[in-house]
Amino acid sequence: MNKLQKANDYIQQNKNNVNNRPIYHFSPEIGWMNDPNGFTFYQGKYHLFYQYNPYDIVWSDMHWGHAVTENFIVWEYLPVAMANDKAYDANGCFSGSAIEKDGKLYVMYTGHVDPNLGFDKVESEISERQCIAISEDGISFEKHKLNPVIGEKQLPEGYLICDFRDPKIIEVNGVYYCVLSVRNAQRRGEIIMFKSLDLVQWTFHSSIFQSSFEENKLLECPDLFSVDGKDVLLFSEMPCDSEYAKDVQNTTAYVIGEMDFEKGIFTPEHKGLLDYGQTFYAPQSAEGKDGERLLIGWMHRWNQENPPKEYGFNGMMSLPRKLNVINGQLVQQPFIDTQNYFSPSVIGENVHLGEEEILIEGKTTGFLEVVVPKTSGELIIKLNKAEEKSTNIKIDVEKNVLLLSSDYGDEGNNINLEELSSNSNEDLTLSIYTDLHSIELFINSGEKVVSFTAYDRDKGEDIMLVGGESSVLKKVVYGSR
User: Fold this and answer.
1) In this model, does residue 481 exceed pLDDT 90?
2) What is the distance between the alpha carbons of residues 159 and 277, in angstroms, rounded to a whole number?
3) What CA–CA distances, in Å, run from 245 to 22, 116, 123, 161?
4) What does the pLDDT look like over 182-227, one tens digit per residue?
5) Is the Cα torsion angle 198, 200, 206, 209 positive or negative in sign?
6) Catalytic residue positions?
């Protein structure tokens, strides 16, 4: 039996043993999931591929899982799209992207070869090369006979083939460009660009972005797109070597600038964080059916505590986010039908928390919006509250500080977020989406976003809003599933 059929048979035979999956955040039917791949709108549906190990809840043996949706709430799981069954991808079909050409769906992915399977890393034995697979129906894929299409011959000197991955393809004026993550000879991260006329024959074009030697960073999962007249480059930052693991956190950054595709020059103007939490990584964008720029990310981190093994799954995706550039900042808004899915309603207006608390009982999955005047004092929103345990969002509007901390999950989840809003004279609006294992907080319609995940089995089910004598809430809105 081939590896693809083996994976699909295993899923069908074992998927009913999985439990405690999120209600409305996408998660795998069974097994481990990480980076979103091949995110695209094709033949009337949004296709999401993802790094996938169906056999266990830990990373190993990367396949490409596959699902489709029309609304990002209801998903249809499709057969596994690719398995690591060729010599050039023997140890993993790593991350990549998708693009439509002549009515067919092309995916480009990284073929990973590591004889030691990552347990004893010997860089001289590791290679990562870029490969193409093609589908006429968006479901069944055939790997190209000329694979790999980008390897040692196309990669210039000064770059290491052992860290050369995550192709994202875009088309500009009839020319295909591909941005890729690579480690240079100085062992630091760069994002480089290749170009092609047919998606098969590729040539090196340029290096468009580099991390400095002092930053000690690799730049993974690059993405490049245009929105609102600006070019935006995304990448996920990680330590360039294990010795810097305590100094460099895994974060996801954006850089707004101008891309000259003909010259291969990206001119940065502003850099920021996509998410101020610690569980948002490797996002990928796509053009929506109406021309929107949409983004979805992996809500996890590599050193995060795994769920209980009996859950049978590990990993989830963020809500899709609609992207815009406003006043030189990248703004992210949730791209689901909040009103119809949650049916939110006003449960409080002009509430003085010094005189009363707001308690919402038995609600683990829902939408909470809180509008706080700029003159209000401190406010604490306690989510998943059970006796002494909760996840706390503490806000001091006058000092422009937000602190997220939790009694669940791993240590080190405190987030100090300053300069909450660029609109210093306006009310602060917090839009919070809660699911069984996650919280996504959108501040002032997506000026900033904070994500949090924890897989603890016995989290509380109440929500409580508390504050001091001067704490006032202009409006509280809630809706649940």
Assistant:
1) no
2) 32
3) 30, 22, 18, 22
4) 999 999 999 999 999 999 999 999 999 999 999 999 999 999 999 9
5) positive
6) 35
